[in-house]
Specification:
- The complex is a heterodimer of chains A (212) and B (194).
- Chain A has one domain (2-210).
- Chain A is built from nine helices and no strands.
- Chain A has helices spanning 2-21, 25-42, 49-71, 73-76, 80-86, 92-120, 126-151, 156-180, 185-210.
- The radius of gyration of chain A is 17 Å and the shape is globular.
- Chain B is built from six helices and eight strands; from the N terminus they run E-E-E-H-E-E-H-H-H-E-H-E-H-E.
- With 194 residues, chain B is of the alpha/beta class.
- Chain B starts with a strand and ends with a strand.
- Classes of the chains: A mainly alpha (212), B alpha/beta (194).
Chain lengths: 212, 194
């Protein structure tokens, strides 16, 4: 119960910071919609289902990367992360709260982006939308963990994509499969397994990322 | 409360602290002085639990919830208000009667009138006062204060003098400063780092 309260307080703070600063969600929205517009005019009129699905996942991944890159910026300024690390709460609560906040931003961006994608390219099946939802969880769990690692380094802007993109390959495979394969069930199962596995790894090892 | 034997700290090849010996009893007041780069901040970060020793041993008889650490940076969010920052820390430290405690500290440090303003709009001195409120919020048994008088005007410094005198004897204090004369009457031990 205490853990849930700590996560709630930290996640609420992240949402409040975004409401005040408005520097993550508008950028994510602008980026993902602009990407679709650019591809709409640069691709042939009716791209294949596989090509369209690939485009959707490239847009989602890089939009998420934009949000993840900003995730720990408020903690880096004024070294607030030290204050959170010193607090007597379980340090994994910092990761979980940040992941939930980033997930909220990503889902908010997709609420706009998916209809735009359907409008410009082709409608999304229920399986594809479920694939996106499952992938979002994995993206935010892994990306937040790596974001915390990267923020401690000097080359943080470079390091996050270098660490994150290789680990996101299974998400793309699962996501494209869920949206384009004849039997999407096993791809959705694969995404759920990825989420569970990496969420547990990140949750258990976050302590070692933020403590010296 | 704090015992260190041959305490040392390295960052890679660079040695920033060498063979420090410390014995600070409960209720003690240790003043740490030394030139820039002598390792004052590193020593305080070690005692606060934010860093681990590379050499020697360090024993601090206080858990995280009983330590209050004032850093060079205020460790508060610039886009949140003073009230929101203290409320967040109050929740994380599970401060009982949180609102009353926050109100009392803001009042004492002259921030009550600006409690709904974002920290980004504060002067450096006001931010330092807020940082002091954050440190005192959970009534810690061990206070680790890294140059606490930095940026405070005379009124703020006098407030802090009074606060330190109040805590003296009852709490254990580690204070690093470039102005040791200011806290000299309270000091029970001194450490000069070279």
């Amino acid at each position: 119960m205490r853990y849930a309260r700590d996560v709630g307080a930290l996640a609420r703070k992240d949402l409040l910071l975004e409401l005040r600063a408005r520097d993550t969600l508008p950028a994510m929205l602008l980026f993902v919609v602009a990407t679709f517009v650019v591809f709409h005019f640069s691709l042939p009129a009716h791209p294949s289902r596989l090509a369209a699905s690939g485009l959707l996942w490239v847009a989602i991944l890089f939009t998420a990367l934009m949000g993840l890159g900003r995730a720990f910026v408020p903690e880096r300024e004024q070294r607030v992360l030290d204050g959170l690390v010193l607090a007597p709460c379980d340090r994994s609560a910092i990761w979980l709260a940040k992941s939930l906040a980033t997930l909220a931003f990503l889902v908010a961006a997709e609420v706009v982006a998916l209809p735009v994608f359907a409008l410009f390219f082709r409608p999304l099946s229920g399986h594809a939308v479920l694939g996106v939802a499952l992938a979002d969880v994995g993206i935010c769990a892994v990306g937040t963990f790596l974001g915390a690692m990267a923020v401690m380094t000097r080359a943080r802007e470079l390091l996050l994509p270098l660490l994150f993109l290789p680990l996101a390959i299974p998400i793309v495979v699962g996501g494209v499969g869920a949206g384009a394969a004849a039997s999407p069930g096993r791809y959705l199962g694969f995404l759920a397994l990825y989420d569970a596995l990496f969420a547990v790894i990140c949750w258990a090892s976050f302590e070692f990322v933020v403590a010296e | 409360m704090i015992t260190a034997r041959a305490l040392g700290k390295r960052y890679g090849e660079k040695r920033v602290l060498r063979r420090v010996e410390l014995d600070v009893p409960e209720g003690g007041f240790l003043v740490v002085t030394g030139p820039n780069g002598s390792g004052k901040t590193t020593l305080l970060r070690l005692c606060a639990g934010l860093a681990v020793p590379s050499e020697g041993t360090l024993e601090v008889a206080a858990t995280r919830e009983r330590i209050g650490y004032l850093a060079h940076e205020p460790l508060v969010y610039r886009e949140l208000t003073a009230l929101e920052n203290l409320d967040l820390y109050g929740r994380l430290y599970r401060v009982s009667e949180r609102r009353e405690r926050i109100g009392m500290l803001l009042e004492r440090y002259g921030l009550w009138e600006v409690r709904h303003d974002r920290v980004a709009s504060y002067s450096r001195g006001m931010t330092q006062r807020l940082a002091l409120c954050r440190v005192l919020l959970h009534d810690p048994a061990l206070l680790v204060l890294d140059e606490p008088f930095t940026a405070l005007d005379e009124a703020g410094a006098e407030l802090l003098d009074a606060q330190l005198a109040e805590l003296h004897g009852d709490r254990t204090l580690l204070v690093s400063t470039h102005d040791p004369a200011r806290v000299e009457p309270l000091a029970t031990a001194r450490l000069r780092l070279a």
